[in-house]
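Objective 1.3, modelling of assemblies. Example input:
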Amino acid sequence: MTTPVTTGRRRLLAVPAVLALALTAACSNSSSDGGGGGGGSASALTGDCAKYQAYAGHSGTKVSMYASILSPESDSLEKSWSEFTTCTGIKIVYEGSNDFESQLPVRVAGGNAPDLAIIPQPGLLAQMVKSGKVVKPPQQTVENENKWSPVWKQYGSVNGTFYAAPMSANMKSLVWYSPKAFKAAGYEVPKTWNDLVALSDKIARAGGEAKPWCGGIGSGTATGWPATDWLEEVVLGTYGGDVYDQWISHQVKFSDEKITTAMKTVGDWMQNPAWVNGGFGDVKTIATTTFQDAGTPILSNKCAMLQQASFYRAQWPKGTNIGPDGDVFAFHLPAVNPQVNTPVEGGGEFLAAFSDRPEVQAVQNYLSTSEWASSRVKTSPGWVSANQGVDKSLYTDPIDKLSAESLTDPAATFRFDASDLMPAAVGSGAEWKALTAWFAEGQSIQKTASDIDAAWPQ
Amino acid sequence: MPTDTRLAGPALHLADSLWQDAAIKFGNTAGAVLGFLGVLLAVFFAAGRATGRFSRPLAVVLMLGPAALLLVVGLVVPLLRTVYLSFYDADAAKFVGGKNYGWAATSSQIHDVLLNTLLWLVVAPVAATGLGLLLAMLVDRMRGQAIYKSLIFMPMAVSLVAASLIFKLLYESRGSGQNQVGLLSQLAVAVGWDDPPNWILSQPLNNFLLMSAMVWVQTGFAMVVLSAAIKAIPDEITEAARLDGATGVRLFLHVTVPMIRTTLVVVLTTIMIITLKAFDIVRTMTGGNFGTQVLANEMYSQSFEQYNTGRGSALAVILFLAVAPLVVYNIALLRKERATR
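Predicted structure (tokens):
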């Protein structure tokens, strides 16, 4: 295990780092800031900087931030708060890492926690809170968070205590399709589950090369996660939020009739030999196709539809026209049971603090405002906030706009990705493995369900 | 030039902070290197000044010290801590005794993992060494052997992850109606097998398909080392054997192999150790699904994906116990060989 080695090396490096930091900090303080503010601790900010008055008084301080977001996405983040940092003089030292999920616990355990961390899974947040190092957010952040629909507060909370405000939201309940192909064949975008089933049958009967659905659950060690999404969509769309929540807390087990029925619905859909796997082969190829490749047959008309999250937009080749009349676009996956109000399954990222220094809290406060969210949305596409204060006309990308509309819809039933909320032994272990075996080896629903239940920590 | 002057400030600031970050990182590196050199100089200076009774012990301590320190910090402490953690629960908070080992011994999932690991341990090193020996014998007799050797040795330069990606593409499978993408499937179609299986899903064949990647990478290493050993056999011995009437297979089995036995075993155990630790191939090609999981990958999954440090550490200890005898045997053999030379 390499843990102590890494921390040991980091400590060795820390000495020259501190020296260098001190030197550069001294240098940067002497130069005047372009934004005009950032002077003495209590001086009033003027001009364009006036709106940052609430965060003033911490000039010359540094706040470290650690996250899984890499360049170029992280450049957009830094750009979105650059005016804030210029005006307030608080420098945000951002560090992105591929190994964020495994390194954050290591850093926190080694006493080397960042001031702030952008955590994409509530499960990881809960684990960090258990370590006792996460600091509760300031009052202003708690108030700012109220602009998100109430269910989000629960996902930023651990055991009923609110710890981390959401920064971004993404939507999983989407079906990717080709508007051009649909138009050419005269297909309508389905509005209900029955329409969806009828359309799939119609495409399957039409013969030819095209199958109605394609899918891929391959993703290295995380193989299986797209299958967990399919099950989650069906559970949420069949029974609504309450059963979904009970399922997450294991009050409703996987072997419960409700969940096995949902698995049967998934089986009739994504394991239907007449419906899948367009462009790849039989049902089993779903297990060996990577989720990144899964949608490519849509472009060659070998597959009509793919259920994947909004972030799948990044997988389309360069030059693909994404939009309501383009090569590809997405529609909202309809609820299996029409009684359930617009089910939206999604994910999000949360800002957790490991320090309560005033400048850290100032950053936390700013990043929870709708002003910052708007600034980030304006910077570049690919970022959606469920903050009600963000003007939806700011979204330039059609997928972002579609996601934002569903995510901020007060009537929608929003729920977080269930596997992210279950214990890691299940949500990042047994469920992936068992559902993969279900697809790859034709394992029975009963065995698949009982295997997952058996892995639930006692 | 940015036309919006309000943006100019922040944009400049951003560029500024990037330079600053780069400067800090450069400063870190330079500081670390200078610091290291400084410490070395001080140490050697002190060692040079020491005279008399203490000079020899001091020299020993100074020379051995850094290496020993790094070994303790980088190997011994983590090892002890891993053993310690293996007796605790998932969050390293509660002592659970041998529960994690009990889980490893009784769970059917781990049984499959251990079985696969054993299969890897036996098949991959034997195949790589055997193939390497065969190639060493054949290539040594060919003209332009340096070129062939370089070509066969080349995969050693490829990382296991890259090799796995290559083999994954080889095994890629499409349904009977589609154009095949993978080489293996296409070859099968070319010889008239219309609907070849999805290779990576075909148990237990898939385990061997994964091992091929390891064999492909390690054969070159085995060949080069064994070829050198074969060439080191004194000509008198082979000649004497020939005069006694030994040829071909007999010469190979009764003279060549016994003469290079030590090297053969070292090569075999070295590849065994690499095999036991290999998790990149499984991780890249199947993620441990379809009945191909091995110990090293399961350990990673338990520790860093399911955040169960207890179980992960227990598996690490089991893996360590499996590798340790091989390492010891390997070192003992190397020493014996050095002593005879």
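Confidence is low (pLDDT under 50) at residues 1-41 of chain A.
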